[in-house]
Amino acid sequence: MKKTLCTLAVIASITAAPQALAHKKGDFLVRAGIASVVPNESSDDVLNLGEFKIDSNTQLGLTFGYMITDNISFEVLAATPFKHKVSLGSLGEIAEVEQLPPTFMLQYYFMDSGSKLRPYVGAGINYTTFFNEEFNTAGKDAGLSDLKLEDSWGLAANAGLDYMINDDWFVGASVWYADISTDVKFKAGADDVTIKTDIDPWVFMISGGYKF
């Protein structure tokens, strides 16, 4: 009888364990990991040299979330500044720009609060601010100066999943898409030039997380 009771207790504890692991209403979620921004850029023609090209960059990514219900969360994406090199046709690399893309999302978590694996999707708004815009030697030698990118507001979406390691820690992976459009302003000699540019990046993130 004692063995039976012990066996039932062990089974009950194993069965109940996942219930304590998942994200649930009232939890705060913090993630940190590697975030890579991969621009899907296009622009108007620039000085008959073609479109701007923007390279990818990887930085520390951070997210902060709050579970409004067992299935719905509010989340903010942050990161250390992303640095991008800008190229133009035969001139090659002409400039470097830094940007921060804080993004505010409502997310829906699939599965119930008893599952260790929680896939999710989300939608929200992205704000991107640009700074430290500067032409390099090649850009300056071509007569370009006074580079400035206008800040951007746009829609955003994401999808991802978290896997609980224990009651507090989890690992995750996610992909984000943001609608980022900006006016690139500069001088070409004495002429003022404005080039409408869409960056529209994919952001890929692998992270570790903690809930409390």
TrEMBL record:
The keyword Transmembrane applies. GO terms for biological process: transmembrane transport. Residues 1-22 form the signal peptide. Its main location: membrane. Gene3D superfamilies: 2.40.160.20. The keyword Plastid does not apply. One of its GO terms (cellular component) is cell outer membrane. It is found in: Cell outer membrane. It comes from the Bacteria. InterPro entries: OMP/PagP_B-barrel (IPR011250), OMPW (IPR005618). Keywords: Cell outer membrane, Membrane, Signal, Transmembrane, Transmembrane beta strand. Belongs to the OmpW/AlkL family. This is Outer membrane protein W. It comes from Photobacterium frigidiphilum.
